[in-house]
Design brief:
This protein has about 180 residues and is of the alpha/beta class. It has helices at about 45-55, 65, 95-100, 135-140, 155-180, and strands at about 75-80, 90, 110-115, 125, 130, 145. Strands 1-3-5 form a 3-stranded parallel sheet.
Length: about 180
Amino acid sequence: MQIHEIKREHPLKKSKLVGRGGTRGKTSGHGGKGQTARAGHRVRPAMRDIIKKLPKLRGHGKNRSESVFYRGPEAVVNVSALNIFKANEVVNPTSLVAKGLIGAVFGKHPKVKILGTGEITVAVKVEECTVSGSAKTKIEAVGGSVTLSIKAKPQSDEQLKKIADKKTAKADKKTKSKGKGKK
């Protein structure tokens, strides 16, 4: 090997001369001096214009009862599907899930509504389910029974009586004050 055949392990790398053509031309990496160089500059994104043009649905969604007072999914079962049960057997969300007529939602039994589509031949006891009018008549015609879960009253009879007494007292007071003003 001779001296003119020797090569560097890492070849000599010269520093890039900025602003002399090539990839760093024009502003040489210093940006523009127009809109981008001014205070308060903000380029409006194209997506913002698209969003602004879309029509808005005001309020709490299209259906307020679903979006604000969400009660969870309600499973629907037709009367004809209840023929799987035996005579005098109890039909409730638990038994419907066990028979495979409805599925559990997140490990819980959904609210169930029984509709009057089809015919029923077995007398069953329906509990803890909402039942349509036609379904109720069909179940009772066969000899079954529908037990509605009793909801607690928001106010007791005593509280309602007190409220009524207050209203009458207020009305009497108003009539007396009107009578005094005319004399």
